[in-house]
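Sample 3 of the quickstart, ligand pyridoxal-5'-phosphate:
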Amino acid sequence: MPELFRPTIARMRGYIPGEQPQDSGYIKLNTNENPYPPPPLVLERLRAACDSDLRLYPDPDAHALRRKLAGVFAVEPAQIIAGNGSDELLNIIIRSFAGEGDKIAYPSPTYGYYKPLIDIQGAEAVPVEFPADYSLPVDLAAAGARITFLANPNGPSGTLIPYDEVAALCAAVTGVLVVDEAYVDFSTGGCIRLIDDHPNAIVVRTMSKSFSLAGMRIGFAFAPAALVMGMWKVKDHYNINRLSLIAAEAALEEIDAMRTNAARVQKTRRRLSGQLREMGFYVWDSQANFVLARSNGDAAALYEGLKERKILVRYFSEPPRLADCLRISIGTDAETDALLTALTELLA
Ligand SMILES: Cc1ncc(COP(=O)(O)O)c(C=O)c1O
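Result:
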């Protein structure tokens, strides 16, 4: 039988998302979800929206959501496109700006989904290695790419590149610069104002992390109106379902709840980082809702030992940057205590 798949699909491995255990009882610190629930208003609105209107398609233009986002972030609705999670927006961006064989650059290691999306498109991935301190690689713009991705804060390091350096990068790249701000609400950063004077800037955000709505799949991107108009041609028309639109709008009305939870996560992150350092881990300065910790022993054994104790974290081993590393999402204080107790036992 001849190969039925396009060569690029036949060759690629496919993205492996973080583990979502089927049995309950795990302390889940492996996929950077928010440990705190969304505010009651979101749940009330969702319950009220479960009615016969579900027979109708959702608003293809997400008008109400984009108006609310424009108000909160002080931009025009025409500068916003919303997506079924920010993953969909990353997908739309690649399909909009890069064709087969075109270069797409990103500092590495970073969010693991860029590479499969690039492979699916048949574009050429140009990973540029981060220095050991995760500062901006100097030759990132030299790649001459049609798209440059910068996760900021970065995953899995949690580190943040300052605004001025991002703006300089945006001016230096040949194509579009995509600043993926999935974790920005846990940080001191934020690059939305790039779109005011950079015609090639796109800033992508999500409600999966700080807004506690990973299950609803809502992302949004800010870009100059001309870029938004082009990307609109690529997006599925009914890309966000009715319930997700309602949840997103309610979450914006209760944005202070998000801010309160983000502040709690930051506080727990400081405590966890300090205690992991006392235990002998090297911990990068995180501005996200997770920390990257390098073990001076056997990180794989720690990962397995935690899993036996029903605590899930993410284990990385790729040298040089991620050798012997655990990425630990910030949980509640009680979950963090359980993690620290288990690590103390395992290290003893
Ligand atoms: C850097 C980064 N960007 C984007 C995403 C995707 O988020 P969403 O749930 O909005 O698709 C993630 C998810 O973990 C991420 O880490």
